[in-house]
């Protein structure tokens, strides 16, 4: 009796392993799908409103407010020396 139960268990073991591998693969693919939502976050340029990922943008701290500029707008920084227009 014990031998037949052992054989029964061993005949099912590969299928149980296969199911476990499928389950792990399913969980892993689900975790990978959740990642691009974070990476896809974009920031709009304060000057030209163009959108870019975080490493493409440059932060400029102006009067306590942090503004995001793209690299093209950040290089020729507009100087706040416009006192003559006031
Ligand atoms: Zn820009």
What structural class do helix, strand and pairing data support? alpha+beta
Name the helicity range: 40-55%
Distance between the termini: 99 Å
The strands making up the biggest β-sheet line up spatially as: 1-2
What integer is the average pLDDT? Answer: 78
Shape estimate: rod-shaped
**Oligomeric assembly:** single chain
Strand content: 15-25%
Sheet bearing the most strands, described? 2 strands, antiparallel
Low-confidence stretches: none
Element-by-element helix/strand order = HHEEEEH
Helical region count?
3
Radius of gyration: 29 Å
Summarize the structure in short:
The protein has 86 residues and is an alpha+beta fold. It has a domain at 40-77. The chain contains three helices and four strands, in the order H-H-E-E-E-E-H.
Question: How would you sum up this structure, described in words?
Answer:
It is a single chain. The chain has 3 helices and 4 strands, in the order ααββββα. The mean pLDDT is 78. The protein is an alpha+beta fold and 86 residues long. The strands form 2 sheets. Strands 1-2 form a two-stranded antiparallel sheet. Strands 3-4 form a two-stranded antiparallel sheet. Strand 3 and strand 4 form a beta hairpin.
